[in-house]
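Researcher: Next sequence.
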Amino acid sequence: MTSLAPVIETTPQAVPWRIDVNRGQRIGRVSSEWFLRPDDEKFLSLTDLYARVCARADKASTRIVESRSLRVEARSDNAERLTLLAPGDDHPIAPTNWSFGQLSSLVGAPASYL
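Model: Next structure:
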């Protein structure tokens, strides 16, 4: 007579990763840069970082404007700080690095100079 042994299904146990502290390198600059950041730029979890990025993306907007219609304004109280204004809008524009580089090339000046 043949007997069958009962099959007991077990779920695999999660085993934590072992970290070998003797491998890799210690770069103190990374942690010092993190500590030097203001509190609103420190994220203790990826969830907090994701929430901040989503909030910033929700507030962002895109406009297509003719470059000829843009105004650059310098105030007398702070002549070194230039403000970029679009037609019909009194709020300054904050262009991305790419769009600022494009505007700089139109006036023939390197973006790093401006």
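Model: The chain has a mean pLDDT of 82. The first strand starts at residue 71 and ends at 75.
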